[in-house]
Every structure is written in C-alpha cells, then in structure tokens.
Design a protein that fits this description.
The protein is α+β, with helices and mostly antiparallel strands. It folds into two domains: about 110 residues, no CATH class; about 220 residues, Aminoglycoside 3'-phosphotransferase, Chain: A, domain 2, CATH 3.90.1200. About 50% of the residues lie in helices and about 15% in strands. A six-stranded antiparallel beta sheet has the order 1-2-3-6-4-5, with helices on both faces. Strands 7-8 form a two-stranded antiparallel ribbon. A hairpin with a 3-residue loop joins strand 2 and strand 3. Helix 4 crosses helix 11 and helix 10 packs across helix 12.
C-alpha cells in the first residue's frame, strides 16, 4: 500500500483539480483529502468482524458505504471510483491500467463545523442540539426494520457484542483497564440482561430495532445546512442493526466523554420527546447502551497497542484515551 499512498498523494493522480493532498490513515482505510473532495480507499484487512481482504469485498463495501451514508448525507457521497495501476503508478485520474482498488468519493466538508470542534470552541448551542435530535428522531422513525433486523434486539443476540467486548479486552486488564473495574462491568452487564430481559422484548414489539447508523459520535456530524451525518458502519450489519437508543447513546456518551453533561441532557430530552421515547426502563436502557458504547471505544483504542507501526508516544496516548473511556463506562454503573 505504500506505493499507492505515495502515488495518490500527488495532485495529478486525482480526478479533480487540487493544489494539495493530505493523507489520513485509520486501521481500516486511507483517506486522501484534496481541496474540494475526499477519496477513501479501504485497506486489505480482516479483523473477523470486518473483512476487506479481497478486492471484490472492498468494492462491495465501498458501494455499501455510499448507499448507506446517503441516508443521512445524500449530497456528500458522490460514488465509487476505480483506482488503476498501469505497471508503474496508481491513479484515479485516467483509465489506463487495470483496476487495483476502489475509492469512495465525497465532497469535502468544513472541518471547523464538525460537532466536536464546535463543542470544543464552546459554540454548541441549545438550538443545534434540538436540531440534531430532530434529524436523528426522523431518521430512526424511517430507518428500515424487518423481522430479520428485529432479531438483533433480542438480548441473546446483543449479548454476542458484549461477550465479544469482554473477551477482546481481557488481555488489556492492568494496562488500559483496572482488573476490578473490568470484573464489575462484566458482572453488571450480565445482571442487566437478567433484570431487564422483558425490556428488550418490549423494544422489539414497539419496532425500535432498526437499521441505524452504528457509529454516531460528534466527529461524524457536521453543523451546516441539512445537518449531514457521515461515516456509518457499512462493514457489519451486526453493529448497525440495533435499538435506536443504542444509536443515540453513542452520541450521548461522546458528549459526556468530553465533559458535555449538560449538552447530553439537552440532546436526550429533546430526542426523547421527538421520538416519543417513554415508559419504564427507558433511562436504564440508555445507561446500558452508554456503558456498551464507552467500553467499545476503550477497546478500539486498546487495539492500537498491538500496532507495531506506532511509537511509544502514540501508545501512551492510546493507553490514556482507552483508560478514560473505561473509566467513563465504570462511572455509569456506580
């Protein structure tokens, strides 16, 4: 992938005129940020829960990314382009050579209007939170549901996710999470399934298990006209088919991780009214899913410790970030 990154970092390799190209890498993708557009290439990785190991799979999930994200950001996701290799260079700008990869093309959004940056500047006002609640309430009300999707709301089906979390985080005990807090969170989660089993059934009967966003945090919400929300989970239906409360709980947790407890209350109260979320156990369910979401973020940051390509400073930062997420998860149960 090094040659591909080097080649596509050159402005002349991209199909639209640009003066500069910035490269951003995650554990699953390489993002080429040009002046007006963004091109995202999926890495050939297989983590079990995510499989981009073949070109055919990467092409399929590129198209899925566009289709699914157009639900909340229709104007931003422009399509899928082939990355060609002519024997010497990779390019998106001409048709010579064979198709070596695929790239999702998006309009570039103003980074300074992303919800996390607006929040950090102290500019996230009540009306914006009400507007976000409205977008999400409408999205959840119209998102696809079906008997197949509803199955993912059953406690034994969702327990697959939490069991996987504890199994994958086990080796990080004493590193990013204290052993006693790991044990307490595991016991609390197990007890929740037993205590609130009927609540899960009620959510299914009310049609609240939907094809959701799955990765709803502040970095993915842009406070421009239309309030586009980007980067949903396209690679695994298990992480996207969920209770609508599990979806918004991610955003509530993210606000609280950044000390935005008042903003989280405003968002939840607005959403609860607009989505007509009421009844016994709803607030308990929010806590359950906030614990789950915080634990997942702690896990994902812990995974960085296994990346041999990052230095000690980056690993220390990953430990600090993961530990903060695990601390937040624990704070919800005490």
């Amino acid at each position: 992938m090094d040659t591909l990154i080097q080649d596509l970092s050159k402005p002349e390799a991209l199909p639209d005129e640009t003066e500069r190209v910035t490269v951003i890498q995650t554990h699953i993708s390489i993002v080429f940020v040009a002046d007006h557009f963004v091109y995202k290439v999926k890495k050939p990785v297989n983590f079990g829960f995510l499989d981009f190991s073949t070109l055919e799979k990467r092409e399929y999930y590129c198209h899925q990314e566009v289709i699914l994200n157009r639900r909340l950001a229709e104007d931003l996701y422009l399509g899928v382009l082939p990355v060609r290799f002519d024997g010497k260079h990779y390019t998106l700008s001409h048709r010579r050579g064979h198709i070596a990869e695929y790239a999702v093309k998006m309009k570039r959004i103003p980074e300074d209007r992303l919800m996390d940056q607006v929040f950090e500047r102290g500019e996230l006002d009540e009306q914006s939170l009400v507007d976000i609640a409205g977008v999400l309430a409408r999205f959840h009300a119209t998102a696809e549901n079906s008997p197949e999707i509803a199955e993912y709301g059953r406690p034994d089906r969702f327990k697959v996710n939490t069991d996987e979390n504890f199994e994958q985080v086990d080796k990080y005990q004493g590193i990013t999470i204290q052993q006693e807090k790991f044990t307490a969170l595991k016991k609390w989660t197990e007890a929740f399934y037993s205590r609130f089993h009927s609540l899960f059934d009620d959510r299914i009967s009310r049609g609240r298990i939907r094809d959701c966003h799955g990765d709803l945090h502040m970095e993915h919400i842009c406070l421009i006209p239309g309030l586009p929300i980007i980067d949903c989970i396209e690679f695994n239906e298990r992480f996207r088919y969920s209770d609508t409360i599990a979806d918004i709980a991610f955003l509530l947790m993210d606000l609280e991780y950044h000390e935005g407890y008042g903003e989280a209350r405003t968002l939840w109260n607005s959403y609860k009214t607009l989505a007509k979320e009421e009844g016994e156990g709803i607030d308990d369910l929010v806590i359950f899913y906030k614990v789950y979401r915080a634990f997942v973020r702690g896990k994902v940051n812990s995974f960085q410790l296994d990346d041999m390509s990052i230095g000690e400073e980056e690993k220390e930062k990953a430990i600090e970030t993961a530990s903060r997420y695990f601390e937040l998860a624990y704070s919800y149960i005490i």
